[in-house]
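Final report, section 2: Outcomes. Of the targets proposed, Tetratricopeptide repeat protein is the one most frequently requested by collaborating groups, and we therefore present its record in full.
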Amino acid sequence: MLELLVVATFFGYIYYLRNYADLRSKSEKEEAEFSPGVEMYRNGRFEEAYWYFDKKVKEKPKSCIAYLYRGLTQKGRGNVPEAFNDIQTAVSLDDEAFIAHLEFGKLYLEANDLETALSKFNKAITKAEETSPAPYHWRGQAYLKLNRETEAQEDFATEKRITEQSKSNGTAPRSSAPFLDKKLIASMVMVVFTSILVILVVKKAESVHLPYLVAVFSAIAIGFVEPHKGWLLALMQCIVVLSGYFLFTTQPETTSGRELENFSLYGSVILTFVASFLGGFMKRALNMQ
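The predicted structure is given below as tokens.
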């Protein structure tokens, strides 16, 4: 039964890492996946890019980015009504994708529907959270056409600031996120379960190998999931393991039993810290590729 619990926990972590540990948004993942077609579009090869994204739309009818870029290629081919329909679909599929709102606004701007364009650019700015200067640039253009010079200049100043920050940081600046977010809370819940598992293994194992193995794998997963906050999760796991062991379990009656559990317990605590740093290092190394 204990072995089954260990396997189930590790498979749970694998599922978690596969589906939730990637910090990119859904649209960012899709854009990376469709990079050959995106490159065709950016190089002005609209016909090739259109057929590429037309195929992707059929393969993945729920993909915001597939519809968005098919719409952009339609625009490049001069098919504005079709472009409008595709980009509208892209917005409906992923309301969080600021680039879809931005391109939707640009269509309205080109059609001289300035108020609608302005509302789309406002949405793009809200969703982008200052990660891109483009929404401010285009909203500034809309303000200029509406003869709202002061607001336009404010947007152009913000565009310049974000661009300069991006150059100095090497990446697009992001607005500060709360330390205690949903991802960290979910990870803390997982840590409670892995801590209980470590305690059970310490109590049931006939050698130190299985407790050490469980502690190492769970801690590597901790560091991988939260490369910057893994130290907090590792500390939490150590506290929960030690507290749970001393408060809710009974000590073995024999000296050999106590020594085995002590070696298993304290060794697991030490390995938790070491392995969490290893997991964080692995995640950062993967992100650099």
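The chain has two domains: 26-169, 177-288.
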